[in-house]
Amino acid sequence: MVPDLVFVGVVTGARGLKGELRVKTFTAEPDTLFDYGPLYNEDGSQTFGGKITGHAKGQLLARFDGIGDRTGADSLKGVKLFVPRDVLPKLDEDEFYYADLIGLKAELMDGTPFGTIHWVFDAGAGVSLEVNTAEGSVLVPFTKSAVPVVDTTEGKVVIDPPDGLLEPPGPEASDDANGST
To answer: Which domain holds residue 25?
Structure first.
């Protein structure tokens, strides 16, 4: 039986010729990636043991057991890494893992359905939620003012979009993008 898994990282590529991997982590403390035991792939069919060997450009460098060359490392590029939920620290009542947000329904302050959370991005300047709507995707800053309610029990978030977030770009935005004045 596959345990309830939480997304903690992704293999972004190989480094060097001896099987070292670059890993983007989504843990609060990146160096704890292997502290929870073996990592699993998305469907739980593979496990990966290993160790952290260093850091480069905001990512971990790691060696996975059994991967000793560039070909083996290249074969893991794009593999999402998970750990069983029950090995992670217990959360306080108002805390959640980013993985818990994916798939939640998003609604506006007045209860109007808005979309579904597709992904959570942390690009370093702040966390954003990618919400799939009927019109396409919208990135919403994941701040208390823009997302005042997160209710994982009810499977929803409430969004109070910042001014201009839901407005289509005006003609001046198109002119600026083309270099016109």
So the answer is: 5-86
3-state secondary structure (DSSP) of residue 70: helix
Verify that 117 and 137 share a domain, yes or no. Answer: yes
The enclosing domain of 119 has a CATH number of 2.30.30.240
pTM comes to 0.71
State the CATH number of the domain containing residue 52. 2.40.30.60
**181 residues of the chain, pLDDT tens digit each:** 566 888 889 999 999 999 999 999 888 788 999 998 999 999 989 999 999 999 998 899 999 999 999 999 999 999 999 999 888 888 887 788 888 888 999 999 999 999 999 988 876 677 889 999 988 899 999 999 999 999 988 999 999 988 877 776 666 554 555 555 4
Q: What is the dihedral of CA 15, 17, 20, 21, to 10 degrees?
A: 40
Residue where one domain finishes, among candidates 57, 86, 115? 86
**Both 73 and 141 in a single domain?**
no
Cβ atoms within 10 Å of 143's Cβ, excluding its own? 13
